Amino acid sequence: MNHSKLASLAVVIALLGPASHLWPLLSQEKEKTDHKHSETNGVGKQDHKHAQAAKQKPYVDLPKVPPPSASAAKAPKGFYVQVVMTNLNYPSSIEFDDKGGIYVAEAGEAPGDPSAEPRVIRQRLDGQLETIISEGLEAPVTDLLWHHGKLYISHRGKISTWTEEEKLNDLVTGLPSLGDHHNNQMSVGPDGKIYFGQGTATNSGVVGEDNLEIGWLKKHPYVHDEPAKDIVLAAPPFKSINPFLDDKAKTLTSAFQPFTKNVPPGTRIKGVTKASGTILRMNPDGSGLEVYAWGLRNPYGLAWSPDGKLYASENGLDERGSRPIANDKEDIYLIKQGAWYGWPDFAGGEPVNLPKFRSKRGPPAQFLMKNHPPVEKPLLQFDEHSSITQMDFSRNKQFGDGHLFVAFFGHMTPMTGETPEKHAEHRVARIDLKTLKVETFFGGMDHGANGKDGHEGHGATDKNGKDKDTHKDHGKVSKDKGDGKNDQGLHKEHGKATKNKEDAKLAKDGKDKDAHKDHRMPSKTMDGKSAKDGKDKDAHKDHGTAGKDKGNAMHDKYSEGKGVKDMKEQGITPGPRRLIDVRFSPSGDALYVVDFGAMLLTPEPRSVPGTGVVWRIVREDAELPVVP
Predict the structure, then answer these.
(1) How far apart are CA 141 and CA 151, in angstroms?
(2) 325-368, pLDDT tens digit by residue?
(3) Could you give the 3-state DSSP secondary structure of residue 160?
């Protein structure tokens, strides 16, 4: 992998694992940016530093991304899709308080936009949007959780809480999140403790030149993986280039050691509590931090089921660094206390020295650990590079009582491995854990619901599906005139047309004085026609994109190719783009899906600001209004 490609991984590796890592530390100083955001019909104006199109050195002009439209998304028969928030900058999580407030996190640093700032916004019961946290957050913000009257925030290296009185309060700090991956989704267990996933510092246990080019090694040369329990090293040191010196200098680095430090096989490595590749748990006040399970590369999604079982999604290994490993899939595990899940020596329950995991980018993988505990096998596996993200359980019969819903971000190849022959799409899957049946619940119009697409996890019992209903759009996009009236937001009735009018802007200090124009339920298309016919004419004028293209096609430089793949793979679509979080409303009547937004993949990853979306899926027979 050349240096330019690795440098672009500086904001790609951190979040999701193979094919979908989003926010690592940066090797270069943040660029000076002059962020702009243009007015959009039907949604609103964000004329502030959080709704930005950064001035960067573009390798191509950013494409014009069509406005999100429910007519470009699909849900199973009996459900319909709505667009409820748009113009977001790299949203990563959504949560609800016990009074009906809605919280959305914007992660911060994103591929191609290192200066994007993290924040948490809230929509109150009166529909007003406000920024509640803009200071003290460490990008990326990966998850939000409401528990016992407090908002818990998982952000790089920290678990913090927020209340109106206390503001931001750090409960746990010093988590091992200065490398490739971070602390991730949180979930409250039956014991009242808070559980969360913690990713690893490296891809496969060895700090290498990939980590220098990614960025964090230059800033944090002491960072390396540390195990949760004592281990004994089996492998000799790994040879790599030492770019600290020059491109020809060689160095040796041992597993679980800082870069350039080598120790002999047989060296004992002491386990620690703040270990990488773990499920950790703590008391609600942050005390009593302990390891619950270990051996997980990047457990990004985590959720307790209604029947008291803990499940995690894991992002598999990449083909990069001193120990590249190929063909590792995305996994869902049943998490057991004290169990070991195989990282760094097993992938999906199988030893990484098998021929199937041999990468063309390096030598065959060796075991790093001399002795292995019993290894747990995944409950389900999904295509490599499909990038499984956060998850939530349905707790009512409308969506399938006890069914697990998981989001898929989509691949980030060729940066992290070989590009898959069949794109796994950006979708939400519904899983019946009793039968292990997997079906697509939400996706683009060309991506079937009810398992029609065939990209299901191993163990799915209905890969082809029977449902051919397309349910284009039972919501309509509203017209916004912008005269300053309050946004009634998500709390409007679904089918009623309303006209939000607002021209207030955010203050220069970043504090909202009003907010987005219109995040309410869709009502009418621009020409007054129903969007059921798929002709949604509501058009956001500009999603903050750079470039001079004003038409429907991308700017010529982008359209000409340069190795660019299908636009839909990169989220250049009015349908689902890069799905990263799923969350049911407290009533269970609605499923909210957080969409990170469009991202170009070639020649280097580049996010498109202002293209983040929150989608909502509800039953056709849902009583109105549906409040969170």
Answers:
(1) 13
(2) 999 999 999 999 999 999 999 999 999 999 999 999 989 999 99
(3) strand
* Strands across the sheet containing 290-294: 183-188, 194-198, 278-282, 290-294
> For the whole model, what pTM was predicted?
0.78
Question: Strand locations in 75-201, DSSP E?
Answer: 79-88, 91-96, 102-106, 119-123, 129-133, 141-147, 150-155, 158-163, 167-172, 183-188, 194-198
535 contacts 525 by C-beta, under 8 angstroms: yes
The per-residue pLDDT for range 477-512, each reduced to its tens digit, is 333 333 333 333 343 333 332 333 333 233 333 333
Rounded CA-CA distance 522/386 in Å is: 30
The answer to whether residues 215 and 190 touch, using CB atoms and an 8 Å cutoff, is no
Distance of CA 47 to the CA centre of its chain: 25
DSSP bridge pairs for 62: none
Nearest to 240 by CA among 303, 356, 314, 321: 321
Q: Are 166 and 149 in contact (CB under 8 A)?
A: no
Helix (H, G, I), strand (E, B) or coil at 211: helix
Asked if 350 and 305 touch (Cβ cutoff 8 Å), the reply is no
User: What are the tens digits of pLDDT across the range 415-453?
Assistant: 555 555 655 568 999 999 999 999 999 999 865 554 444
Q: Give the number of other CB atoms < 10 A from CB of residue 68.
A: 32
Task: Give me the half-sphere count of Cα atoms (radius 13 Å) on the Cβ side of residue 180.
Answer: 39
Q: What are the percentages of helix, strand and coil residues in the chain, rounded to 5?
A: 5, 25, 65
What separation in angstroms does the CA of 114 have from each of 22, 56, 77?
11, 10, 41
User: Can you tell me which residue has the tokens 């017209």?
Assistant: 479
180 has a pLDDT exceeding 70: yes
Residue 322's nearest CA partner among 452, 198, 224 is: 224
Q: Which amino acid is at 175?
A: L
Tokens, residue 167: 């503001």
Q: What is the reported pLDDT for 572? A: 81
Q: How far apart are the first and last CA of the chain?
A: 46
- Of 114, 125, 60, residue with least CA distance to 89: 114
Q: Can you give the length of the chain in residues?
A: 628
Both structure tokens of 87:
């113009």
Task: Report the SS3 class of residue 45.
Answer: coil
Contact 82, 521 (CB under 8 A): yes
